UniProtKB/TrEMBL annotation:
UniProt KW keywords: Oxidoreductase
Annotated PROSITE patterns: ADH_SHORT (PS00061)
UniProt similarity note: Belongs to the short-chain dehydrogenases/reductases (SDR) family.
GO terms for MF: oxidoreductase activity, acting on the CH-OH group of donors, NAD or NADP as acceptor
Keyword Methyltransferase (UniProt): no
Organism: Mycolicibacterium rhodesiae (strain NBB3) (Mycobacterium rhodesiae)
Gene3D superfamilies assigned to the protein according to its UniProt record, in alphabetical order: NAD(P)-binding Rossmann-like Domain
This protein's record includes keyword Oxidoreductase: yes
Name used for this protein in its record: Short-chain alcohol dehydrogenase
């Protein structure tokens, strides 16, 4: 469907996990194009311009949304970017670490959408970007719970988008490949996995406001992954995954 247009110039944008990495690059790009940007982060990195928000807490996320609306009157665009990515053997991973991964990467999206979408629906327009990952399509040894969280992020985004498609509010999932940020340090990626910069992901996020597509991969050619996966026998896919990811087993 055709969603009501949102002009980036003059829009009010809220970005979580915005103190560094993808979130920081996204906030800067939106601001450079004329948007009013409000950044939320659990660790404000000594910046007085950042709201302290714990995305695993519905109360904290709601307070962030309420503060932005109180200051600027509305939120046109929410970028759910906060994320964590612990690396390690699935059976050895502590339950608390797994819980944090799901809390930030899944419940963070749920809390954000439940906090902001009623305001958007009331106005008949708005856009939510959930920063997922190609790890929501491609399994990576050593990242089992992270994989689960990103598969959930992709499915959640599509489901909420469909449920509210007639409201004027759109939901897009952005799926980057391996991103060269502090979050990705220590990830066992092989030479076949394309790497991108935070600025590449930021451009995809900003462009999603105009196109409002359900899924945006970074780089774009990875959009064919679903078709390739469905049409390729599992032994061949397993070999392909080993070329992309350092398996070692």
């Amino acid at each position: 469907m055709a969603y009501p247009a949102i002009e980036v110039d003059g829009a009010v944008v809220a970005v979580t996990g915005g103190a560094r990495g993808i979130g920081k690059a996204t906030a800067h790009l939106f601001a450079s194009r004329g948007a009013t940007v409000c950044v939320g982060d659990l660790d404000p990195a000594d910046s007085s311009d950042v709201f302290v928000v714990d995305v695993t807490s519905r109360h904290s996320f709601g307070a962030f949304v309420d503060a932005v609306i109180a200051r600027h009157g509305r939120i046109d665009i929410l970028v759910n970017n906060a994320g964590v990515m612990p690396v390690g053997d699935f059976l050895s991973e502590d339950d608390a670490i797994s819980g944090t991964t799901l809390g930030v990467n899944v419940w963070g999206l749920i809390h954000g959408m439940r906090a902001v979408m009623p305001h958007m629906i009331e106005r008949g327009r708005g856009h939510v970007v959930n920063v997922a990952s190609m790890a929501g399509k491609l399994v990576v040894p050593g990242l089992a719970v992270y994989n689960a969280s990103k598969f959930a992020a992709v499915g959640l985004s599509v489901a909420v988008r469909e449920e509210y498609r007639s409201s004027g509010v759109s939901v897009s999932a952005v799926l980057p490949s391996a991103v060269r940020t502090r979050l990705a340090s220590g990830v066992p990626l092989g030479h076949g996995m394309p790497t991108v910069d935070a600025e590449d992901v930021a451009r995809a996020i900003v462009c999603s406001v105009r196109r409002r597509r359900a899924e945006i991969t970074v780089p774009r050619y990875l959009a064919a992954w679903d078709l390739v996966s469905a049409a390729t026998p599992e032994p061949v896919m397993r070999l392909g995954r080993k070329l992309i990811v350092t398996d070692g087993r």
